[in-house]
Predict the structure.
Amino acid sequence: MNLEHSTKHEIDQLLDELEQSEKNDLQAQIAKAEQTLTLSQAIGYERGQSLSYYYIAQTQARLNDFTKAVLYAKQAIEIAQRHQLVVEESFGDGHSRVCVC
């Protein structure tokens, strides 16, 4: 197994952990998402970059920093669109969701 594939797999595992983790420690969420973003950028893994930006945006919104949340969400969507990743946006129950598949 090559290093890039192994690293993508590890990044996907970190992203899954972010999705499933408790949302109580918001600073830890941001730190983990930033770590995942750095790893994704290092190997040029666009899906990982986009989802990392999404999780940072989501957490910034929970911290009521909507300016940062919007900036990070835009970066997530721009990367997804630029690399032709599937982006799903839905709005309901007062929550927004961006899925990069």
Summary: The radius of gyration is 13 Å. Residues 3-20 form the longest helix (18 residues). The helical segments are 3-20, 26-43, 46-62, 66-82. Strands lie at 87-92, 95-100.
